[in-house]
Amino acid sequence: MFADLGSTVRESLVVVSIAGAAGLFVNGFLNPNGISIIAEREYEVLVPCPEPGGVVTPISAAESLAGSEPVFWMDARSAEDFVRWHHQQAANVNYDYLDPTPDEIIDALARRIARSKAQRVHVYGDGDDPDTGEQLAREISGKGIRKVFFVKGGARTLKDQMEKNR
Amino acid sequence: MSRLVQWPGHTWLALPIRLYMGGIFVYASWHKILYPGLFALDVATYDLLPLVLVNLVAIILPYVELIAGMILIVGFRTRTGAALIIAMLLLFTVALVIALARGLDMSCGCFASQTMEEDPITWMTAVRDVIWILLTFYVLIFDRHGIGIDRVLEPRA
Question: Which residues of B touch A33 (CB under 8 A)?
Fold first, then answer.
């Protein structure tokens, strides 16, 4: 069945050689979109690697403020936005789409949550699509913190609701 | 086994497979030949080759696809074309499985360069490649006197 394997391999090598010569010639002299034979710099390849996102539950701003269980609040927005307005009990952990939150920060947060005796973690962000609050909530939930909720609509909705409740 | 290989019906069964697989490879090569830069980006995205080889592979591989596909279509040195296509499909499948195992969300880069949403890699892509490998193996093993130039050039008994 494979008696002529040797000749098939030889012919394959000939074909690859011809293809190589044709490819280099056309790329070098005929193709206006030709490229250099050796890349001069790294390709900017952006492949989203899957982060271990956990399960989070969306809640409305009204629900987030209504419960009786002690809550640990987290603000996923930038430090500037946090200074402008924040929930008075919130801790600021800026969610960055490119850099996952370092494990040390998550560990420190987990200790703070444990010390606070909070039963739930409520996260709010910019309320955009995607919402930084939801992303941060998934990230910390994926690291093992339980009962994590994110506020739908983010800081704006939460602020409006708090003013309404006054 | 040898009677199975000698069965004359293989020629007719293999013909549509040859045209199908040859057509796929000629089609797959076209966009890559026209836009080697986009294909090089696809090759780099798999993150399997050193940078020094990425462009070289992106320049040469589409021509191997083109010639191997044409060989299958016209039936000249058919078994060589089939062997090359099997070798390429094996390489593609290994690269694909590694990318899937790494959990990369990326475009296949199999045909015209498409976005991840249009042509994402999935396990079904790997299954499709395995089916294509099996079909081409059929041509390699059983298409002994294929319809095409090989038959014209064959010495008559």
Answer: 34-37
Which residue ranges make up each domain of chain B?
2-143
ipTM of the complex: 0.85
Q: Cβ contact (<8 Å) for A1 and B55?
A: no
CATH for A57-165 is: 3.40.250.10
Q: Where are the domains of chain A?
A: 1-45, 57-165
The pTM assigned to this predicted structure is: 0.63
* Minimum CA–CA partner of A35 in chain B: B37
Tokens of B12: 């007719």
List pLDDT tens digits, range B36-45: 998 998 898 8
| 8 Å CB contact of A35 and B47 | no
Residue contact B105–A34, C-beta within 8 A: no
3-state secondary structure A96-162: CCCCCCCHHHHHHHHHHHHHHCCCEEEEECCCCCCCHHHHHHHHHHHCCCCCEEEECCHHHHHHHHH
